[in-house]
Specification:
Elements (H helix, E strand, L loop, with lengths): L1 H18 L22 E9 L3 E11 L5 E14 L2 E13 L3 E8 L5 E4 L2 E2 L9 E10 L2 E7 L5 E10 L12 E4 L7 H14 L5 H4 L5 H4 L4 E4 L4 H6 L3 E5 L5 H14 L3 H15 L8 E5 L5 E6 L3 H19 L2 H19 L11 E3 L10 E3 L7 E4 L4 H17 L5 H13 L4 H5 L4 H12 L2 H10 L3 H8 L12 H20 L3 H18 L5 H10 L8 H6 L2 H16 L10 E4 L34 E2 L22 E4 L3 E2 L3 H13 L6
Parallel strand pairs: 4-13, 12-20
Antiparallel strand pairs: 1-2, 1-10, 2-3, 3-4, 4-5, 5-8, 6-7, 6-19, 8-9, 9-10, 11-12, 14-15, 14-22, 16-18, 17-18, 19-21
C-alpha cells in the first residue's frame, strides 16, 4: 500500500507539472537532456550541494522497470564533509517518471531507524513510523538537468546531472537484507500447556502492549526470524575510508548507525582479532589477570579497570582464546597472556581461605575506597587484592575450561605454574559447587587425573558418570527451543562445559564417553540451529562434526547441506561484530520499527517462579533477531549469551567491553579449521 501511494503521488506530481509547462526548448546535446538520444536510461554523473554538508558528486542510475517508470539509485559522496575522519556517502533508491520537460523522482527515506538517543540527540517515536517522501524534479537548465529539493528535516539540496554512461549488469546499489526463518520444530502439546500456564500466571496475554500485536501474522504463527544483512559488505572491504548512509535522512544519528556497520564489515577477521587481542591485553586484563571493563575518558583514553562480576567465566574463555591463538601462531605474547590470566584463575581458588569456596573475580585493593558489598580484602600475600564472593556453577566452568586450555600450551619446564596447577586440580573436586552441581565433577576429576597422573582420580572420574544428573545429561537431550524462546545464557554455558568434557575424555582416551559427549554437542546444535547461534556452530564443527559425529537428532532433523550452510553463516556472525566496539551514550529500541512484532511466547517464562515475580515487561521479546551491529555490539559484555530476540539496549559512554566474545569465536574457528576465517 505504501508503494502504491508513493507511486500515485509521483504520477500526480508529473501530471500537474506537465500541464503547467511551456513549449520545450532546444538545448545542446553535450549536456543532459530529456530529449537525449537513447532516452534517460543510464548512469548519469551528478553534482550538487547540501545546505548542511556542502558540495558532493556522484551518480544517478535510471533503469527501466516493467511498469514504464525508472528504478532509481542515487549515490553521492560529500567532498568536504567528514565524520571521524571518514568520508560520508549517501545512497537513496526510488522511482522516476520522465516527461518531455521533467524528470520526477520520488524517494522514501527513513527519518529514524533504531537509535533513539545519541548523547543529547533524541528521536521522537513518531519519526520511526513512516518514511519521508522526498520529491525531486529535474528540469532543463544551462548546466544540464537540475533540481532543488528538501529532505523535509535536515537539508536543502541543489543538484544537476550532466553526462551519461551505460548501465552495468548490476545496479549501483542493491538491498540484500532479508529475514531468515527461525521458527524451528513444532511445540509439543504438553509443552504448549506448560507455556499457557506460565502466560496465565504472568498475565502476558492480557497485557495491552502484547495484545496490540495479536492480529499480526507472525504473532499468530509464532514465527520468529533472524535478520541477515550482508548489504555493502563488499563495498566496505574495498572502500575503507567511506561511511555509507542508505535510504535514511543523513544526520549524526544515522551516520553513527552506519559507522558501526562499517566497523563490522571494513576490517578483515584477522584485523579485528589483532585489534581485540591488543585492546584486551592493554585495557581489559587487570593487574590480577582477570577480564575487566575499561573506564575511558572523553578522548577514549584508559582511566581504570572496572570489575566484571562474571569474570571467572570470561577469563577462562580468554585463556582458551589465547591458548588457541598460540597453537595457531606460536606468538609469545599469546603464551604470556595465558600465564597472566591462568594465575588469576588459580588465585580465585586460594584467596577465599576456604577450600570449598572460590571467588568470582579479583581487583586491586585501594585503601582510599571502602570495600564494596560482597567484596572482601585478601590476606597475607593477597592483601593487595579484593575478591568477589559467589563462585557458582557458571564461574567454575570458566576455571576448568581455562585450566584445560592452559595445560595444552604451558611448557612442562615451567615447574612453578605446573606445580600450582596440580595443587589446584586436586582441590577442584572438593569445591562445594561440585556436590551442588555434580555435572561439573567429571571435568574436575578428569583434570586432576591429567595433571597429577594419580590413577585414583581416573577411577573417580569414571564413577562420576553414574550420578543421576550426569547420566541424564549424557544420555538424554535436555535442550529446548520453542519458536524463539530458549535459555540463551545457558546455551553458551553448556557449550563451554561440553567442549571441556569432550577434550578431557579424549585426552584420557575414554572414546566411548567422548563420542557420547560429541553427540550431545551435535544434539544441542540441531536444537538451536534455527536461531543461528554461530559460536555453537563453530564449536560443534570443531569438537564433533569434523570428527565424523552426527547424532540421532541430526539424522532425523538436519542434513549435511544445512550444517554446511550454518558453518558459512557462522563466518557472517564474526563479520557482524565491529571493531572497535562503539563506546557511546546511546539508547536503541527496535520495537519502534513498523515491521517489528512482539513474540506471543514470553522470554524466559519460567522466571515467573521467582519471588518477587518480575513485571510483565521483563518477559517481552520480539520475533526478529537483529544483526550484532544493530543491537548487541553497543553494550553487550559477551554477545553469545544474550537473548537472540532482544530489541532494546542502552549504554553509557565511558565503559568499554573486553571483546572476549570475538576472540574466543575467532580463535576457535582458526583452531577448528573453519574455512574463510583468514
Amino acid at each position: 500500500m505504501k508503494l502504491l501511494s508513493s507511486f500515485l503521488f509521483l504520477f500526480l506530481s508529473v501530471v500537474v507539472l506537465g500541464s503547467c509547462t511551456h513549449k520545450e526548448k532546444q538545448i545542446p546535446r553535450d549536456i543532459a537532456s530529456l530529449q537525449a538520444s537513447g532516452g534517460m536510461e543510464g548512469i548519469w554523473f551528478l553534482q550538487g550541494t547540501s545546505s548542511t554538508r556542502g558540495p558532493y558528486n556522484g551518480e544517478l542510475e535510471l533503469r527501466k522497470s516493467n511498469d514504464g517508470t525508472f528504478n532509481v539509485v542515487r549515490v553521492v559522496t560529500y567532498i568536504n564533509y567528514f565524520f571521524d575522519g571518514l568520508r560520508v556517502q549517501e545512497v537513496w533508491t526510488g522511482k522516476a517518471v520522465a516527461s518531455a520537460n521533467t524528470l520526477t523522482i520520488s524517494y522514501d527515506i527513513k527519518q529514524a531507524d533504531f537509535i533513539t538517543k545519541l548523547g543529547t540527540l533524541k528521536r521522537d517515536p513518531s519519526e520511526f513510523r513512516a518514511p519521508v517522501t522526498v520529491l525531486s524534479r529535474f528540469v532543463t537548465s544551462p548546466a544540464g538537468l537540475s533540481t532543488k529539493f528538501s529532505d523535509k528535516k535536515e537539508s536543502e539540496y541543489s543538484e544537476w546531472i550532466t553526462t551519461r554512461r551505460n548501465l552495468e549488469a548490476r545496479p549501483l546499489w542493491v538491498n540484500e537484507r532479508k529475514n531468515l526463518d527461525a521458527k524451528g520444530k513444532s511445540i509439543p502439546v504438553a509443552v504448549r500447556g506448560v507455556i499457557k500456564l506460565f502466560k496465565m500466571d504472568i498475565g502476558y496475554d492480557k497485557d495491552p502492549l502484547v495484545k496490540s500485536y495479536k492480529n499480526r501474522l507472525e504473532f499468530k504463527d509464532e514465527h520468529p526470524y533472524v535478520v541477515f544483512d550482508p548489504t555493502d559488505f563488499e563495498f566496505y572491504r574495498n572502500n575503507k575510508d567511506i561511511i555509507r548512509v542508505t535510504n535514511k535522512i543523513t544526520d549524526d544519528i544515522s551516520i553513527t548507525e552506519a559507522v558501526v556497520k562499517r566497523n563490522a564489515y571494513s576490517p578483515t577477521l584477522p584485523d579485528k582479532a589483532q585489534g581485540y587481542d591488543k585492546n584486551a591485553k592493554d585495557f581489559h586484563i587487570n593487574e590480577a589477570g582477570m577480564v575487566s571493563h575499561a573506564v575511558l575518558d572523553e578522548q577514549g583514553r584508559f582511566v581504570s579497570y572496572s570489575p566484571d562480576g562474571d569474570s571467572a567465566l570470561w577469563t577462562g574463555m580468554y585463556v582458551a582464546s589465547q591458548a588457541m591463538r598460540y597453537l595457531n601462531t606460536k606468538e609469545s605474547e599469546a603464551l604470556q597472556n595465558v600465564r597472566k590470566s591462568l594465575k588469576g584463575l588459580m588465585t580465585l581458588m586460594e584467596i577465599t581461605g576456604d577450600n570449598k569456596e572460590f571467588a568470582r573475580t579479583l581487583a586491586i585493593y585501594n585503601p582510599q575506597n571502602p570495600v564494596p558489598q560482597k567484596w572482601h580484602r585478601g590476606t597475607g600475600k593477597f592483601a593487595n587484592l579484593i575478591w568477589l564472593e559467589g563462585g557458582n556453577n557458571d564461574m567454575v566452568k570458566g576455571i576448568t575450561h581455562g585450566f584445560l586450555w592452559a595445560s595444552l600450551v604451558i611448557p612442562t619446564s615451567d615447574t612453578e605454574i605446573w606445580n600450582e596447577l596440580r595443587e589446584k586440580s586436586r582441590r577442584l573436586p572438593d569445591l562445594r559447587i561440585m556436590s551442588e552441581k555434580p555435572q561439573n565433577m567429571p571435568a574436575a576429576l578428569g583434570l586432576a587425573t591429567l595433571f597429577t597422573g594419580d590413577a585414583s582420580y581416573k577411577e573417580r572420574y569414571l564413577k562420576s558418570f553414574n550420578k543421576l544428573k550426569v547420566k541424564v545429561g549424557l544420555n538424554f537431550d535436555t535442550t529446548f527451543y520453542w519458536h524463539g524462546s530458549a535459555d540463551w545464557s545457558g546455551i553458551n554455558l553448556s557449550m563451554v562445559g561440553d567442549v571441556t568434557d569432550i577434550m578431557v575424555a579424549d585426552m584420557l582416551k575414554e572414546t566411548e564417553l567422548r563420542d557420547k559427549m560429541r553427540e550431545r554437542l551435535m544434539d544441542a546444535w540441531v536444537t538451536y540451529q534455527p536461531a543461528r547461534r554461530h559460536l555453537l556452530t563453530i564449536a560443534a564443527y570443531g569438537f564433533a562434526y569434523r570428527h565424523g559425529t552426527r547424532g540421532g537428532d541430526f539424522r532425523k532433523e538436519s542434513s549435511e547441506v544445512r550444517f554446511s550452510e550454518a558453518l558459512r553463516e557462522s563466518i557472517w556472525g564474526l563479520r557482524e561484530i565491529p571493531y572497535p566496539r562503539p563506546n557511546l551514550d546511546v539508547n536503541i529500541d527496535h520495537s519502534l520499527r513498523p515491521e517489528w512484532c512482539m513474540s506471543p511466547i514470553p522470554r524466559l517464562f519460567w522466571k515467573s517462579l521467582k519471588k518477587p515475580e518480575p513485571p510483565v515487561s521483563y518477559f517481552y521479546q520480539g520475533l526478529y533477531s537483529y544483526p550484532v551491529f544493530e543491537l548487541s555490539a553497543f553494550s553487550s559484555g559477551f554477545l553469545w549469551k544474550d537473548s537472540a530476540f532482544a530489541y532494546t539496549e542502552s549504554h553509557n559512554r565511558g565503559v568499554e567491553q573486553a571483546g572476549v566474545d570475538y576472540l574466543y569465536a575467532y580463535w576457535l574457528a582458526r583452531y577448528s579449521g573453519v574455512r574463510d576465517v583468514q
